[in-house]
Design goal:
485 residues; alpha/beta; Rossmann fold; Helicase, Ruva Protein, domain 3; 3 domains; five-stranded parallel sheet; three-stranded antiparallel sheet; 16 strands; elongated
Length: 485
């Protein structure tokens, strides 16, 4: 419907056959239509097709307020924001109404009087669905005045009204969200008295402000999000409110590496120029997700806090940026990711892990290094034979012999592509070992470096960091140096 052709008065609206519909019925009807026509209103949500999304759909079909319960980074808020796809594109409301009141169902005394006086000539405005989503982060300092409203003494004096008259209320965020989706994130953080006001709105449709009782028949779709109660120590959802939230839906982290990769790739902000000029081996994408899984199961990281997919998203962005920075320094038109670039993603990791006591003792930087090294070890063993098994030792003989003879290589973080490749090629036996497995031409040097890190993980060669250089050498070299010194 073109904006100019929409009804501008109540009379025109009625001639067009308009009927009132609650927001819950609106969501339900549009979901039914989407399901029947095989449309997905939750585009961009991965890994929830058989778990969370069906639960959300059942809640909508049941006309329920619902709670999304899960650890951080489990797409709770994103699901709530996508609910707007199930709203009608435009809805009419009484022009000038602060609460976007339905022209056929006004709820404030002022609007009721206005419709009664002007009848079919009362002016109509239209509200787009993009404006019908309201989100509030719960914090302990949120007050009833913020959320519900307060009595405005100036308005009372100006209108010569009693404080018990609803027309002297300065409405809070919740009434101003009438006919909207209203989302409260981290609901346990709200003080108990604020939660009491909420369940009064949900159940009794009234609220008490400074001892005065007001009726508020608001039309809302309420969505709450929270972390599990055994995780958040800041508060909890009071029982009467929890009892009035009809559906509680549990979210979860991706149940497969494939889904995790899809989430990371879809959410990471990578420019077209970066994608064009930087080659990322497929194992690097796998590495990030495997590392996050290690973090979620690490004895150094609090499992109740969880490890958000935002870690993998930020890590991928940092990997691209690390490789991009190097190519810019040397004015190279293209480059390939290196394993030494993995250290560049540490800043995106350290702030996203809640450490236990043992992890605090190690420090976030050392925990990040540990996760990287353990993941490299797993990735190495997934592609190459275990060098500690006697039947496989001969396969690594030439490589280990080269290091045992006192040779070493130094990989500078910001070396040119040519210098980096030449440094790896000088390891006797390494190019030949990699060639047997016939990797992609673009991934050869990444695989060479992976083999070296795998040998480090099994303590067959040693690795040391000196500022911006990674050094691979014989494991006895440091011991002999210490002995002679």
């Amino acid at each position: 419907m073109i904006m100019e052709n929409r009804a501008k008065t109540l009379g025109e609206l009625l001639k067009g056959g308009y009927t009132s519909k609650s927001i819950k019925d609106e969501l339900r009807d549009n979901l039914i239509n989407a399901l029947q026509n095989k449309k997905n209103p939750f585009e961009g949500i991965f890994g929830y097709d058989d778990t969370v999304i069906p639960d959300v759909q059942r809640a909508i079909l049941s006309r329920h307020h619902f709670l999304l319960l899960g650890l951080r980074g489990q797409a709770k808020t994103k699901i709530a924001r996508l609910l707007t796809n199930l709203l009608d594109e435009w809805i009419p409301y009484l022009e000038g109404s602060e609460l976007f009141e339905d022209p056929l169902l006004p709820i404030t005394s002022h609007s009721i009087r206005k419709v009664k006086e002007q009848k079919e000539d009362v002016a109509i405005s239209w509200l787009h669905r993009s404006e019908r989503y309201v989100e509030k982060l719960a914090t302990p300092d949120v007050s009833v005045a913020d959320l519900i409203g307060d009595i405005d003494p100036i308005k009372a004096a100006h209108l010569k009204k009693s404080f018990s008259d609803e027309e002297v209320i300065h409405y809070g965020l919740l009434p101003k969200s009438n006919r909207c989706i209203f989302v409260i994130n981290e609901i346990p953080d709200l003080q108990a008295r604020i939660q009491v006001a909420l369940f009064n709105i949900l159940q009794e449709q009234d609220v008490q402000i400074k001892g005065f009782r007001f009726k508020m028949p608001l039309d809302l779709q309420m969505v709450f999000t929270a972390n599990p109660e055994d995780y958040t120590h800041r508060g909890s959802i009071i029982t009467p409110l929890k009892d009035r939230i009809e559906s509680q839906i549990l979210t979860h982290y991706p149940k497969s590496i494939e889904w995790a990769q899809k989430i990371t790739k879809s959410e990471a902000h990578i420019t077209p120029k970066q994608k064009e000029s930087i080659h990322i081996p497929s194992k690097a994408y796998l590495f990030i997700e495997e590392m996050v899984e290690f973090a979620r199961n690490s004895e150094w990281i609090d499992p109740k806090s969880g490890v958000s997919p935002r870690l993998s998203i930020s890590a991928l962005e940092n990997l691209y940026s690390t490789a991009e920075r190097r190519s810019l320094i040397h004015n190279e038109s293209s480059t390939t990711l290196r394993i030494t670039d993995f250290w560049g993603m540490i800043p995106s990791m350290t702030g996203k892990m809640e450490l236990l006591y043992e992890g605090e003792q190690e420090g976030p930087y050392q925990v990040a290094l540990h996760l990287i090294s353990e993941t490299l070890k797993k990735m190495f063993l997934a592609s190459y034979p275990d060098p500690t098994q006697s039947k496989n030792k001969a396969k690594y003989k030439d490589i280990l012999k080269w290091f045992n003879e006192g040779n070493q290589i130094q990989l500078l973080n910001d070396s040119t592509t040519e210098a980096y490749q030449n440094e790896l090629k000088q390891v006797n036996g390494l190019p030949q070992f990699i060639a047997q497995l016939a990797p992609k031409e673009s991934d050869i040097y990444f695989e060479m470096e992976l083999v070296l890190h795998g040998l480090v993980a099994h303590q067959l060669i040693s690795l040391s960091f000196l500022e911006s250089v990674t050094i691979f050498k014989d494991p006895l070299a440091d011991a002999l140096n210490d002995l002679w010194n």
